[in-house]
Amino acid sequence: MAAQSAFLGETDGDVAALAGERVVLVGYGNLGRPAAQNLRDSGVDVAVASLREEPAERARRDGFAVLPVAEAIAEADVVWMALPDEVVPDLLATTAATRPRAGSMICLSSGYTLAYELLKLPDDVDVVVLAPRMIGARLRERFEAGAGFYSFVSVEQDATGRARNRLLGLAQAFGQLRLGALEVPATT
Question: I need a surface site. Which of 29, 78, 113, 176 has the fewest CB within 10 A?
Fold first, then answer.
């Protein structure tokens, strides 16, 4: 049976679902920078991890704590992978030196790695997709203007029983739910 889709709006998410949790954006480029800034402006505890020094330095100049990628993956409550799809499987591979901790949430910016079975995450973590349908610079502009942007969201694995609430809190803080998000599984 095919999964049902739902269109979600501002009343569907609550930033409070992330209370007491640290979100780390892995990547500080086209998506990572506006995401980190929007989350911070929404009151979320956010830090950045970067594979390259130039974006890491930019994040520091923008006032963010910058963590080593391995530390971020191992210790963050929410790890949002704001990296190209082809980079993510190596960082989260079962053979990687660092694994997400039990109860954490991994947020992917695209469902590609899941749909094509390029990534297998531990059973004890939440796995969600939050995929905006707009270029990064416009994401920030629309957020600052009080507008939103369309996106896809999905819960792919709910290990904690809180994955959907956490995902929608993240989407709310990011500004996605202002215009709306289509909830549709990445793997159907």
Answer: 29
> What's the pTM value of the predicted model, to 2 decimals?
0.93
Sequence-distant (6+) residues with CB within 8 A of 72 are 24, 26, 47, 49, 79
Sheet holding 45-49, edge to edge: 6-8, 181-183, 151-157, 126-132, 105-108, 78-81, 22-26, 45-49, 66-67
Task: Give residue-wise pLDDT tens across range 67-107.
Answer: 999 999 999 999 999 999 999 999 998 888 788 999 999 99
Structure confidence by residue, pLDDT tens digits, 38-70: 999 999 999 999 999 999 999 999 999 999 999
